[in-house]
User: Fold these one by one.
Assistant:
Number 1:
Amino acid sequence: MSSILVVDDEKSLRDFLAIMLEEGGYEVFTAHNEESAVKLIKENIFDLILTDIRMGKSNGINVLDFARKTLPDTPVVMMTAYASAETAVDAMKKGAYDYISKPFKIEDVQLIVKNAIEKRELSEENRFLKTVLNDRFQISNIIGKSPAIQKIFELIEKVSKSNATVLIHGESGTGKEIIAKAIHFNGNRKNYPFVSVNCGALPENLLESELFGHEKGSFTSADSLRLGLMESANKGTFFLDEIAEAPLSIQVKLLRVLQENEILRLGGTDTIPVDLRIIAASNRNLSKLVEDKVFRKDLYYRLNVIPIHLPPLRERKEDIPDLVEYFINKYNSKHEKTFVKGEEPEAMRYFENYSWPGNVRELENAIERSVVLETGELIQKSSLPEEIFGIVPGGQIQVPNLSKESIDLERTLNQIEKTMISNALVQSDGIINKAAKQLNLSFRSMRYRIQKHKLQDNKTKESE
């Protein structure tokens, strides 16, 4: 039940408002002057304060001032029989939520009260969400102990304290948006919006309207003015995901934002200043796209002030055990399964030897699937996706999909070989000659490949 403090020196009005608000489901406290109001504010937390401005020798502006200092999130609505522009402006400058002139209509009071309390609830919800996000994206809460990811954490700590533009590049699924949010929530803009847009997810005309907004009548269905995402993110951070997919016409306008700190709404004639930190991300090689003349060189240099490269999961496999544990806990909670405690060593061996072309995102999906399917305390091989074994339905070897970037064929082939050798050892209980027969290799060739990929451990042996 929301609580409201009514402050007025006229008893009949206090009683009338108290009855009306209590019928609306609110808990109501009343005070007849400034002193009694201040005492109640010291002792209680109110969701709304309704106070008269002139109350004999008392002054409602003083109640407003005290409330703003003591309960800064509580909206205060001023009431007065002496309606004047000066008192209204003075009250609003001091932080009043709204202003009611006596005599007033009951429905007007009810609407103002409803809107003010909803605003307070929204403010509390936003504060809670910001607290959760601040905690979640603290550097210490991002999973990874490998040297590669630790270097990125060190860079985030340095970069987050500045307003420098950042360009994050890495394969799909490596967590580029997580790094962008870590930069935002560890920096001096964390109390302002973090807004993101995927430049490849919208057609050109819609992307322009989403980014910069539009004026009424700028196109057929533009029946009202609309603020763009960049304008709504003012003072915060704007994340341009998949920036390589932005059309050249949009690239020109993004360059203006970076150079001039201003935007121009679609159909508008006046520029609008914006204060934004820009973070961009791409899974493609932007310098190569510049050479191919499909990405503007000047925009590339403006974005690439602080480059951050996110390594693929196959290059930081020492992080896999911690990621697996984190995702098991996450999906235990999501699917209300408390009994999955970890994974069998055999399952972990598959996790560590698979190439993970979909990176952390693919690992997360595999763990969620395993948690849902598992009926015991430990994730078994039978709960893992088939592609982790190097085989897809039909018996063909899985190979990475060719992306828009080139791939290192030699490294990919080595990874496939390592995965198959490792899988054969697992299936043969570490017996080398048995694994060699399974792959149609000689014992000598098999042993060479085991040494080459550093797969020898205390579980492998030459024969039964």
Number 2:
Amino acid sequence: MYYKRNYGVMPRTFGGLMEDMVQNGWTRLNEEVNSFVAPVNIQETETSYDLHLVAPGLKKDDFKISLEKDILTVSYQHGEQKDENKEQPKEKWLRSEYQMKSFKRSFSLNEKVDAGNIAVKYADGVLVVTLPKKEVTEPAKHEIAVN
């Protein structure tokens, strides 16, 4: 059987997938299937660092954003119970392939970030966390007389 190589990566065959499941168990396969990392872009401007985290289909209240010491954490917990007790309409889906999965991203902040003025907005499926830069003040210069 002939396998085409794409950039040195051999495609996994069904037999290879089954062998991997037998050797490594279902746990590893399940972790690979259920893991999700929300993609993020980080932009530096003159006044801030902006984190653009892609998370479509959520509401701004779905996110948990915390700052502990110098670690900023952005997370979403799928299936978290809300205080609402709304009846869900019973709709007949012929096919349902997508679902939102939980994620948690953490970022180490440096001393250049003004942690007290972090701003967050969510629009069009993108969460933007603005980390303002601290104003850099140069130490006062003064001459010292030689005695």
Number 3:
Amino acid sequence: MSKNGVVNSRFDYIDHFRGFVIVLMLLDHSSYYLNSIWAQSDPLDPLFPTWGQFVIRYIPYICAPGFLMMSGAMVWWSFQKRVAKGVPVMKVKWHIIQRALFLILIQVTWINASWGGFTAFKPDHLGVVATIGISMILLTPIIQLKWQYRTVIALAIFIIHAFLIEISYNTEVVWQEVLMQTFIDAGNFNKYPVLPWFALAILGSVMATGWLDIWKTDKQKIFYGLAISLPVFAAAILLRLNTDFGSIFPFLKFSHFSFFMDQKYPPSLFMNLFSFAAVVFGVTVFIAIGRVAPWLLSIFSIPGKVSLFFYGMHIAIFGVFIKRLDIFYREGDVMESLIGFVVMMLVMWPLCWWFYGVKRRSNNVLIQMI
């Protein structure tokens, strides 16, 4: 980053934040494989007996919104950059769609199979990576719209989704399950329905208009980041406190962790607004840290540059060594989850460094997509 605050072509804070998100996801998945609480809890409706269990589960709640918003931001930037270089619009959109189709393919092949240590091929399931891919495809028709229009579309989707999740359907009827869980509800077929997460990807593209274009200095990015995130935090909290609309799970009181544990699968309107604000605030904090102590963020740089590789590899390692070989699978607690997280970081960071070098040197299309 230059001294006057104008960003370089790589936008370090985007890589750092994306790396931070993938590291948090590693923490979440370490708990998923090692924490005995998941032997008795439903991921779609979890209960947490202690603050420690709540913290290691709740902090990674920013992961999926972070991925979708960073994806939307990079789709917008890639589109703007390529069009500015004279590449035809349709060719740029086709490039985005190709990348999106690759993500969907990776989800239904490698990622789905890796969860169980490659004991079974499971192409009949969607997940967060496929949802990112589908959202990228849906972004292409609207990516040229002004940020104001994209914002309205995203907010409209949030509100409409809050009504659509009330639709009842029969999970025993395949077409109903596939249709509803692809776009609206969460369940065995897909925990990440496209509509609410697509709206977050749209808002990521909106924020990219400010982060990567309109706001030229770090001071501007910090000011507008706070000016956007703090009021949205307040609006989300008021929505949770004062209305029955937009929330799904009940809570005991504001000071109890149940207040913040509204439904994630699929996300309620409260969770959508709160997650958006959390991501914007998080990026703002990273920009501020980058101004005064950039070395604090350096550990996130390489994972952020190869986040798909990190995602696919860490699940595969957990799946093979913990699930398939049944090594301490769901026998621990919070401490064991944290130890597993540290061990996996020691494994994944050099792996990511190695693959980042491979990616920089290679012209292979598939390697560049990972």
